Amino acid sequence: MPQMSIKMSDESKAVIAQHVRRPAELMTAMRAALKQGLEEIAAHLQSNYLRGGSWREPRRGNTPLAVRTGSLMRSIQTRLDGPLSGFVGSANNKYARMLLGDQTVGITPKRANHLWIPLPDNMTGGGIAKMSPREAMSVRTSTGKRALRIFKSKKGNLVAFMPGKVVDDKVGRQMGLVRGSGTSVSAGRHKRGEFKGRDKGQLLFMLKKFVVVEGTDALAKSVQDKAQRMTDLLNEAINKVAAGGGGDN
Questions:
Q1: Residue 125 within a domain
Q2: Hey, which bits of the chain come out as E strands?
Q3: Residue 194 within a domain
Q4: Distance between CA atoms of 56 and 86, rounded to whole angstroms?
Q5: Minimum mean pLDDT among 15-29, 45-59, 199-213: which range?
Q6: pLDDT tens digit string along 126-145?
Q7: Is the pTM of this model over 0.90?
C-alpha cells in the first residue's frame, strides 16, 4: 500500500518551540516591567512629595514634605509579592503610613503626660531637634536645681523654657547653657522691649496632650501620577514578547 511520510520542517519545529516558551517569557517580561514601574513610582514619591518642603511651615496635609532625618525617605520600598503583583510603600512604619495615607490621625502620649514638640529655638536648620526632652530635663543650674522651666504662655500653650543659650566655646561658659556640661549658666535678663526684666533663654518644647496628624495621600497621588507609565511598561513587555523579542527587558 502506498505510503506518504509527513514530518515538520526544522523551521516549523522552531516556531512551535517558540510558542511553547512564550508563556514563560511573557511572565518574565511582565514581572520585570512591573518591578520597574514600582521602582519609578517610589522614586517619584520620594522626589516630588517627600522632599522640597520647609519644616517651618505648617503641613496640614499638604506636600511636599521636608526632609529631616531621612528616615521616611529610607523607609520607602518596593517588592513583588506574587506572580504579577507587588507593592510600593513603607512597611512596618506607623508614622510613615500616617503621612503617606489620606487619614487624619490623633496622637496621644503613651508613657508620659504630654507630647514634647520641639520648637524652632531647639531645632537645627534642617529641622532636627538639638536637645531631647530627657537631655533638657537633666540640665541643672549652678545650685543643682533643674534648669528647665515649664509654664503656660500668653496663648495658653504649655511650653518648656531653658534659661541661657547652648554654646560650644569656653567663652560661652559665661554666656549661656554649656553643651555637654549639664549645667545652665545665666544669660542675663532682657533690658528692653516686651521681655524687659525676664531671663534670656530659649523655648525648647511645646507640651501637648493630643496632636492631630493629617495625611498627605502622597502614596496614592504618586501611583496615580505614574498609572499611564505603568500601563505603557506592561504593554511594551507584551508587545516585545509577541514580536519574538524575548523577556530580557
A1: yes
A2: 76-82, 85-90, 104-107, 115-118, 140-141, 149-152, 158-163, 183-184, 201-208, 211-214
A3: yes
A4: 36
A5: 15-29
A6: 889 988 999 888 888 777 78
A7: no
